[in-house]
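Question (not urgent): is this output format expected?
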Amino acid sequence: MKTINYLFLAGALILFSAFTIASTINWKVSDKHSVKFSGTEVEGVFKTLEGDVILDQNDLSASKLSFTIDVNSINTGNGMKNKHAVSDKWFDAEKYPTITFNSSEVFKEENQMKVKGIMTIHGVSKEMTIPFSFSDNTIKSKFSVQRLDFKVGTMKGMSKKVSDKISLDVTIPLTK
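Got this back:
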């Protein structure tokens, strides 16, 4: 009888371990992603996004998200605006070629998943908490940044037409 109990216990532990291991998945960003931005007098997309995602929906504290956007991949639909966007008057892509986000914490608050981490734009790093959803192997998020907090477009004589608040609409399909 003891042998049967031990076998049952061992089997249950193995089964539980298998489910625990399976619930933590390392993901890669698919090239079908979408990083759209918009504000007054500006809208477009970043075409190049790379990242790594470790997501454990059973234990969000074990999750990590990191993303890198190539600033030179900006596309506003206007060649001249693209040139201005990567110039030293705005993003200064030569000096600051990437936008990065690295998580420090993933958690759920009021049935909404959120990721806290450091966003670095134009050489300025700020802690941000960003809401997101995850379903069908896809991360989706809508949030905004204040471009002046990151010193984007702050040079004297820059257009006041572009809003400080820039809205982002992010869709990131993931692959295993």
